[in-house]
Design a protein that fits this description.
heterodimer; A: alpha/beta; Rossmann fold; six-stranded mixed beta sheet; four-stranded antiparallel beta sheet; 8 helices; globular; B: mainly alpha; three-stranded antiparallel beta sheet; 3 strands; 11% strand
């Protein structure tokens, strides 16, 4: 099985007013191609730090990160900027769209930066916005559309360059129940079409869409659950949601 | 089965098969598969207890149809049932037993029990999402699935609390 992301002995220590604080204390993680992994754990367990190290938004103190077979933890910021454009898609809790660009331009920009022709970028943008059901807001600026729509735009932007891995940091943390469900449905759809996803969340229901749920505690992976889609629906229905008469 | 049948009969008299059909209409897939025999057994008991009375209605070329009607006692029993608040859903006390006793007796590692239980709940949440996709908008089942998911989310929170209080603080209950 090919692994898209591998970390070995990953450590991160922050300096807090001269006092070293360990956010990660040796994380070994291997994410297979096409796998959907959720990371859960209490606040301060290191889950967001882990995601940031995976996407090169921060550098480890110790250990290695390999992306698509290549060691990346020692790359320069400039090299990471290129890598993030082409191989890593990011989705954040607060969308982080460019406020004075239209939805269409927000989605096309990373494609253009990665070297797509304007025609290609436009084609890919149309395809993604249609797929995510937000074609009608292509000409709007982010502040004019709902949170759920903004997150879908952010998702389109993250997917525009066919990244090897999609990293999502609490992508539903700022959404209502209905939008959470829609965004989750879209993530699930892209996962079914082969997208590798690593998602950090404190929402168990969101986490349970993954193939594997990892729990972190005190900067370490403390447990791991593989979820299956195989259980018999009829038996489940009688066990979980049957009225008694 | 007793009270749902009384509730069905409160609006109008009906025969056994009509009751089955009406229950199925209200609760859809949330209802376990019913057979008409169960309904007639329950009706027989209700008749014996004086909560319903049956009248034979003649049918062409077929045996008489028995139509059931609610009695005053039946209505009183029904009203009493509806008026009582329903007790809250029971907590997973069997797991709590395992957790406390296994830790105390050195039978198993409580942390491993919590991990396994959390895995079970997460898997159940996943299963519910699949059931929801298969519910095809059946409103009764869909609402029950949401209810079950909310309960599971609470179970997961409670599990974290057990972990914090029992394991991190090293305090026995």
């Amino acid at each position: 099985m090919k692994h898209v992301l591998v970390t070995t002995g990953l450590e991160k220590t922050y300096d807090s007013d001269g006092v070293p604080v360990a956010a990660l204390r040796g994380v070994d993680l291997a994410v297979a191609e096409g796998e959907f992994v959720s990371v859960m754990g209490p606040s301060g367990c290191g889950k967001s730090t882990l995601l940031h190290l995976l996407g090169g938004l921060d550098r480890p103190s110790q250990g290695e990160v390999h992306l698509d077979g290549r060691r990346v933890d020692q790359l320069s910021e400039a090299a990471w900027a290129i890598l993030r454009r082409r191989q890593v898609g990011f989705v954040f809790q607060f969308f982080n769209l460019i406020a004075n660009l239209t939805v269409a331009d927000n989605v096309e920009l990373p494609g253009l930066l990665a070297g797509q022709s304007p025609r290609e970028a436009r084609g890919r943008r149309r395809e993604l916005l249609a797929d995510l059901g937000i074609e009608e807001v292509a000409g709007s600026v982010p502040s004019r559309i709902s949170g759920g729509q903004q997150q879908r735009v952010a998702l389109a932007r993250a997917l525009v360059n066919h990244p090897a891995v999609l990293l999502a940091d609490e992508p539903t943390g700022n959404l209502d129940t209905q939008s959470t469900r829609e965004v989750l449905e879209l993530l699930r759809g892209h996962h079914e079409r082969g997208q590798t996803i690593v998602l950090v969340t404190h929402d168990a229901r969101v986490a349970s869409a993954a193939d594997r749920v990892i729990h972190m505690r005190d900067g370490l992976i403390s447990e791991e659950t593989r979820l299956s889609g195989e259980r018999d629906p009829a038996a489940l229905a009688s066990q979980l949601v049957r009225l008694e008469v | 089965m007793k009270f749902p049948i009384l509730a069905m009969l409160a609006s109008s008299p009906a025969h056994g098969y009509e009751l089955k059909r009406e229950l199925e209409q209200h609760f859809g897939a949330a209802l376990p598969p019913l057979n008409t025999g169960q309904i007639y057994t329950a009706l027989g008991r209700l008749e014996r207890d004086g909560f319903v009375v049956a009248e034979g209605v003649a049918q062409d070329n077929r045996p008489n149809k028995r139509v059931y009607r609610l009695t005053d006692d039946g209505r009183a029993a029904l009203e009493d049932w509806v008026a009582q608040p329903t007790p809250a859903t029971r907590l997973r006390d069997e797991f709590f037993m395992k957790l406390v006793l296994a830790g105390r007796g050195g039978i198993a590692d409580p942390r491993a029990l919590i991990e396994r239980q959390r895995g079970e709940y997460l898997q159940s949440l996943r299963d519910l999402d699949r059931l929801q996709a298969g519910a095809n908008g059946d409103p009764a089942q869909s609402l029950l699935i949401e209810g079950a998911a909310l309960h599971l989310e609470a179970d997961l929170k409670w599990l974290s609390l057990c972990e914090e209080r029992l394991l991190t603080a090293e305090v026995s209950p």
